[in-house]
Amino acid sequence: xxxxxxxxxxxxxxxxxxxxxxxxxxxxxxxxxxxxxxxxxxxxxxxxxxxxxxxxxxxxxxxxxxxxxxxxxxxxxxxxxxxxxxxxxxxxxxxxxxxxxxxxxxxxxxxxxxxxxxxxxxxxxxxxxxxxxxxxxxxxxxxxxxxxxxxxxxxxxxxxxxxxxxxxxxxxxxxxxxxxxxxxxxxxxxxxxxxxxxxxxxxxxxxxxxxxxxxxxxxxxxxxxxxxxxxxxxxxxxxxxxxxxxxxxxxxxxxxxxxxxxxxxxxxxxxxxxxxxxxxxxxxxxxxxxxxxxxxxxxxxxxxxxxxxxxxxxxxxxxxxxxxxxxxxxxxxxxxxxxxxxxxxxxxxxxxxxxxxxxxxxxxxxxxxxxxxxxxxxxxxxxxxxxxxxxxxxxxxxxxxxxxxxxxxxxxxxxxxxxxxxxxxxxxxxxxxxxxxxxxxxxxxxxxxxxxxxxxxxxxxxxxxxxxxxxxxxxxxxxxxxxxxxxxxxxxxxxxxxxxxxxxxxxxxxxxxxxxxxxxxxxxxxxxxxxxxxxxxxxxxxxxxxxxxxxxxxxxxxxxxxxxxxxxxxxxxxxxxxxxxxxxxxxxxxxxxxxxxxxxxxxxxxxxxxxxxxxxxxxxxxxxxxxxxxxxxxxxxxxxxxxxxxxxxxxxxxxxxxxxxxxxxxxxxxxxxxxxxxxxxxxxxxxxxxxxxxxxxxxxxxxxxxxxxxxxxxxxxxxxxxxxxxxxxxxxxxxxxxxxxxxxxxxxxxxxxxxxxxxxxxxxxxxxxxxxxxxxxxxxxxxxxxxxxxxxxxxxxxxxxxxxxxxxxxxxxxxxxxxxxxxxxxxxxxxxxxxx
Length: 836
Known about the structure:
The protein is built from 30 helices and 14 strands. By secondary structure, the protein is mainly alpha-helical. It is globular.
């Protein structure tokens, strides 16, 4: 047996060993955790005399196996459970009183936590005893938990009675009084709801207001003065109906549509170009998935096919290299998520990876997270731990290719997927020379030779009773591991001549399929019975086959998700599209269709549109067209006191809600009105050129601008590193790249105003806009209003502008600087960054 040399990280509870071991013939990264119980009988005496009696008297009636209750997911009758805690966190953290929620509750330090709940505060002597017990390491002689004995069965039948799990129902078009008002079927549902509550719709918005609304909603860009003139001309000649339909058709056919609506899906797909978490290394190949999404939306790929490709594209038949590339890149959806690349326990990393994939897929497609059942049955929705681990087997049978090399900042590495060649493709990833390839290969040979020699010398030292670390030290082991990882990582991205390879993030089935064991409280070290791969039981679709023994089951899972009879998928996507168009979803909790989410404001309308969506071929473009050509969408956003009194949140849609533009729209609009917007798609991403780089080092990385805004292309192509977004996106509430986000937050904070006043980006756009509006004569102020707001200035605004320029001239300001200042003031207005 080999002698062990262990670096220890000692905690009050005992010894927690994580990391490097000498095993047999070398140092190894083990990640093994060893716990040593240091408590003696005397320390247990204190627990038995001062602690256990209090728990029995005041706590067990609501938090014990014997009582059959675990309020808040908390059990207090075992050492394991009291340390694990419940829904709000660990009840006891040995040695750390301030982090122990049980102590906070007893001491009434937190208004949200009080214990016992129906009694006065416990005596100071008791609280002091618990403080001492926790500070001394919380020695506890009790046996492990039997929490599984009080797990009640998940109520599947009640779950199936919940509206979101019932089959979609086709409603008859409701009768309405104002028959002439509607233009689309959806208008009748909206009008019927209003009329039944004694309200009427708002008047139509002015044509110029409607045009600006449509442009931003469909393409994320403002209309140009020329486009506004042409639209108003058609309205005068042919009427608003013809003009609107023609404009919507043209916008849906433009490349700008996919860039705008692709960004919506990237929010849901938690698109990011770095790993996040502790290491936060770059993902230089993530951009391929971004482009796939945009191209799919522009091609109007049916939504069911879109989902299947992302969940199981690698398992679909491909007709030629182009489709094989597309299918491979699509599975980047599963590979893009945040990852703990410093997780020492490889099994824990794999389990966490599968968990993140389950969470993403179910939240994105079903608006409910089965991943909430990892450690216990879902607290609100009808998903059991058995459901979770049945899905976990599908993803544990899947290999994820995310492409990070092992280095000094991470212990987890990953490969990438090679793509079939594409004629004329310019790969943005760095190339190297053929001699450099040879040099890197020679470095690997030298490292292997050095490692072998050092291990042999260390083994000889062990036989002679000497310290092997003198010949193969911890520092030597780490240096070899990190150098080998970086060298191999670089070689995997180029061919033998040093040319950059076309690579992508994605997934493939593993060679060996597995069924996941149910893990008690989600802990790797506590496996129980294995769960056959299948789908959540609350949703039964007879025509979908269960996974076979020779495949992961991802393809079957994808078909299950997109089956026309699935109660959630079409409803969820229909609701997402409605939310992007009308500002609030029919189900306002866009990402939560579960028991704890909100109920639909117009349930019959949601089902009507969802059925229409499926029967019409799952076309997102057609759904968008249906909504933006409706009369409900054409309403003005004016305030009406009578309607506001009845429906202050506008859930019944008595007007069109105002909305602030999203971060990308604000930036793109500035580039558009200044005439600088570059409509060409950049090749790759700024991050594509900086492989294996920590986001923490961006400030020291050559070629990266300080604000990460590296060009005048559309904002969807800006870098999306986790924890370091470009300034304009960060300040104006872009989606957090680590989370499934179907409903962005909207804030109004001083930093936004400071950015608009002081940002070099905004100042540059104002200067360009000033040069543009002063060309060729005419009234530049009128041009500013037409370009920035899609309207003419009124008399008061014209007078204010004249007074500003007069004052600027009196103070000796140049005409160029005065006009640039005026343009910047316009870009900073609320009207510029708000619709209606």
